[in-house]
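Hey,

The postdoc asked me to send both predictions to you directly instead of through the lab channel. I've kept everything plain text so nothing gets mangled by the mail client. Protein one:
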Amino acid sequence: MSTANKNHITVFMAAFNAAPYIAQSIQSVLNQTYSNFELLIVDDGSTDNTVDIINSFQDKRIRLIQNPVNKGLPYTRNIALDEAKGEFIAILDSDDISFPNRLQAQINYFQEHPKLAVLGGYAYIIDKDGERTSNVLTPITDSNSLRAILLFVNSFTHSTVMMRTAAFRSIGGYPNYPVAQDYGLFSRLALQYEVANLPEYLSEYRIHNSNITDRKKHLSKMQLKSILFEQLNKLLPNTKHINADLLLSPINNSPYSLNEYFKVYQEIILQNRIRLQYPITELEQILHQNWFALVMEKGKSQTLKFYLKEPIFNRKYSNRKQIKRALIQSLKSFFGFQNKRRTIT
């Protein structure tokens, strides 16, 4: 075996009624330029011909495990905890496609970064017919920035991720969430290990049902709050007063006041400076940019006053253009208000 293929990889695929797409997904794994892998497929009680399609491939590297009944994604994905034989686990969902050089590119990067535990990459978005859309997934690549942003949002594309199996096992695998198990997993791993994304396209990510049910939307919102508080509970002395919706809502047109944002951002910054849970510079840069956007939208005549409030404001993360914009908005709003008063009186 060549040196380049010395690391054994488990490519892991969970499948449920995946007949329309799974053959293409499997073939994309078998086409890899890196050959030292097993393809571990766990069928979660499919009622279509998914298993027949899997069995039609005559390749000894494919290993099929069948759940007797449908157990759900968390259970099915965590079968890898016991069954994965590789030093690394590469994830590919049963409707997505890996590019031929994916495993080789990722294993090369792991060999150059021995402390790295999780590595994802870019992905093209394809529709149900396999046609590329105009959208792509280009998550944050820098390790420190990625660790910081995971407090608020998932920045990994599941079907591009490769993990060290030992790290995956050390945290007990995927959390038992109905949705967002991947975000729950990666946010936990990032608290203990180095993580990164390759700035190259590794997979095609298929979107074939954009009609998310109201139940799934509700579950997703609940799980995002759980993931947020799981992290905040490690960072803050007390989280009972924290409004999760404030941190999870879009910044634009937010219903929350600047004072509400300031109190939460200030506490996160000061506690993180003590506990060092997230990279200080990268976390504070994220909050600083959010704060600038908020004060520009809500500050009016006090835009500059709010913008310069420490510890969110930091000259290291600001620039003259931002200060100038905040000043101009404050002056325009102030004189506009004064003119309006004169007109009324």
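Protein two:
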Amino acid sequence: MKLAGNSNGFTLIEIMIVVAIIGLLAIIALPNFEQARRSARKNACINNLRLISAAKDQVAFENSYAETSVLTSANVSAYMKQSKWPACPSAATGTDVYTVGAVSVNPIDSTYSASPDSHVLP
């Protein structure tokens, strides 16, 4: 026999405790999520720099450029497999932030080259 006051639902206190636990987990996870996004953007940018470096080496080899010859994105873009010039995921949309430079120098992301969190080829 069931009593009238006995119910099978959750009490308000139980629901509040569950919401508080979920809130604490979210507070702990958000900084880690932001760090993972920043790391993924940096790695994507470094991969773009690696591709530009390979294309630059190919241009220099095929056209017999000297080590001190300075190349631009217009010289290198024809040797990229992508249809358009890559952009750093952390930069403003549509901005050309990569500095190609001389044949002997690795390309850099000029937007972040001055910051401590630089996007440069290792």
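Summary for protein two, as requested: The two ends are 75 Å apart (CA to CA).

Thanks,
C.
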